[in-house]
Amino acid sequence: MNDGRILREAWIDGVNKRYPGKPKPGYVTPWDETPAWEREAAAAVYGQVRDFIEVSGGRAARLTREQKGRFAALCWTAQMFRHVEDPKPGYVADWSELPVCRREADADIFERIEGTV
To answer: Three-state SS for 74?
Structure first.
């Protein structure tokens, strides 16, 4: 689960840096207070991004920041569908429908994981 913690901390850092106004409490909940399903989802997304980077032979570094963010967002969307029976539309929205602050936080997540691989 430490991998999930890395992802969660990257998310919180991104939200604190970019969210317009004060973020919703659930967006910045510390790891130890995050629900178990969300910790499991964070660990899974970390693993998916890590594996993607590894199987690319390091060439994922050549992706644009947007491509990196899209990949992380898509992995998260799949986990939302896995863990939440009827997720809010905003939680599973396509990349083009996501707020810029979330897109940037997703790219931050990919890049933070990239830095640990």
So the answer is: helix
